[in-house]
């Protein structure tokens, strides 16, 4: 009985994971099938100089002293008529960023730039709240948005503004570039992951006339589209995804421009990456809770509804992956490899689902930007390992998103000119360590029982969990060492007063 239950559960998990793998292959097929439609987006209507619309560029900030000046300077260099361009700095900062940015805006205004500084005394709605406040007083008919770690290119507005000649276009999204792609293995893998999203997912959905989303930055909205969709709402942590679906359900069309690149900075430590991915995972689940039923019952095509389902539920693969990791060892022990049917059930689906679809997906992403497909193949093992290592943390995000709407918007720390100024908090990687040991046991068991198809994947699970656990533990140890001298000095000055850091629970690090 136990054996039968294990087989059924194991197969169910594999089947669910395989469905997401097949979906990736479907996106690759759509990209290849709709190449003409994708290329057609580059043929933007020209706009006479006197007919250029007024544009507002919104720059939402929160404690971004390391990158704020770079962002403001690059935005001020925008190649667009000064009398038709407004720069809104939406600053919720509570540190020195306030004074730094306010002074920078004053200098820009002295140069004739229409720059406006708006500071809120609270963070109601977080980024969505700041964007909404700015929208109320924005002068532009079109609204471009850039996060603090981006470097807007001078040609950005002119490159996409012509699309809005079509009154049905509500948003244009551009591709993200990666300033520090080659900084480390971690950034190389992140770059590949994001390239997959932009150069496969976005291109496929746009080319096939499916619903896709504004990525939160590096894009431009029609102000009326935002208003008619219900405005910025902050009951989810992915306000960009939420608004995107509401706008498209209201009839607005989106355009994706892969040839217009907005460079940005990738997180360089795993704690920052985990914080970023946690927010995206939790927010996507919240958006699915909020809108999926409405999307599936709306008057759109079946293919649009089906793609929306996969678009809004990808993070459920993380708890499935953790479940697979837990089931792998007993499955290998209890199912004899000599049984051909058993090998097909246990080993082959794992092999195909985790490699075939991923290889095709990321090879296309590399080829689309003129890079060698071999780059994707060589980084694929580390990509699988990193995705596995992040799975326990992101599973928590999925369950949190299922239980609660909204929540604290924890922004991703940026490196900029002062590396180490802002840091993400991290819990002790106990779950990752336990899963690493369990996966190591599965690796040994796969060899001893003859399940050789499973051996490389059990090994990758081991490496992934161990890699993330090691990086998080190392970052925490380094920060404790760096904080020790200042804590010692503070305690010697105020021996009778415990410091805030001393009262902080082990495993929680101040940003």
From TrEMBL:
- Give an example GO biological process: cell wall organization
Q: Where is the composition biased (Low complexity)?
A: 484-493
Record's keyword annotation contains Lyase? no
A Pfam family for this UniProt protein? Glyco_tranf_2_3
Gene3D superfamilies associated with the record? Spore Coat Polysaccharide Biosynthesis Protein SpsA, Chain A
Highest taxon of source: Bacteria
Membrane-spanning regions, if any? 316-334, 341-364, 428-447, 453-473
Q: Where can this protein be found?
A: Golgi apparatus membrane
Q: Could you cite one Gene Ontology molecular function of this protein?
A: glycosyltransferase activity
Q: Where is this region: Disordered?
A: 483-511
* InterPro entries to which the protein is assigned, alphabetical: Nucleotide-diphossugar_trans (IPR029044)
What are the entry keywords? Cell wall biogenesis/degradation, Glycosyltransferase, Golgi apparatus, Membrane, Transferase, Transmembrane, Transmembrane helix
Q: How does it sit in the membrane?
A: Multi-pass membrane protein
Q: What is this protein called?
A: Glycosyltransferase
Species of the source: Polyangium spumosum
